[in-house]
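Section 4.2 – Deliverable D4.2 (structural model, holo form)

The reporting period included a commitment to supply a predicted holo structure for the target in complex with uridine-5'-diphosphate. Inputs used:
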Amino acid sequence: MKTPKYKRILLKLSGEALAGGEENGIQLDIIEKIAKEIKQTYDIGTEIGIVIGGGNIFRGVAGATKGMDRTQSDYMGMLATCINSLALQQALESLDIPTRVQTAIKMEQIAEPYIRRKAMRHLEKGRIVIFAAGIGSPYFTTDTAASLRAMEIEAEVILKATKVDGIYDKDPVLYPDAKLFKDIAYIDVLRKGLKVMDSTAVSLSMDNKLPIVTFNVSKPGNIIKVVQGEEIGTLIHS
Ligand code: UDP
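Output (structure tokens):
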């Protein structure tokens, strides 16, 4: 068995990943598949924190463009991430993986509040920790939550799961000759306005030299490949 390149990772899943091909909602077969992929990585001894988005249920910006108060709709988005987190917890626990959900907004009947020291202890004890409700503040996204929590738990890398193989010089759907970058500097992601992660998340990672690997999560075995150091996807670094 190969040893993992990274001892502790922060996996960022978008809400969309749980919807499969559908526009909204949670596809239980898809979530089961993702949980099995995570288990492969867990089984080689990797400590795993997970941040999951809520875009399959509700996005604050979408509500605001339709006339909702932005803060109110962002809170709805944060609650959507909690629903996804509970679904993922269930799927992981059905594979016998000890898991804790910690929320940035208190809801103690269903999950622990986010307490960094507790999260670290869980990880050391081999529990996967799912960080829900983003950072608990409106006007942020779960990408930024992923960057922040990754630093707080001293993860060595953020694994940003996407639907495409990584970052291209142009849209691969429109241009078949689009070139996949093996690696790219944070500053170039920001300068070119590449929509791989939001700019707050990229700048926060840049300022703290936290590498990000963006990769295609729909290809089986990709999470463990990244963790074992295979060069797939695009590495964003200094
Ligand atoms: N959100 C927020 N603060 C946070 C994280 C999330 O207000 O710290 C809200 C925001 O409205 C966002 C929604 O929760 O649109 C869902 O998160 P996100 O859009 O990041 O989900 P993803 O695109 O990853 O599915």
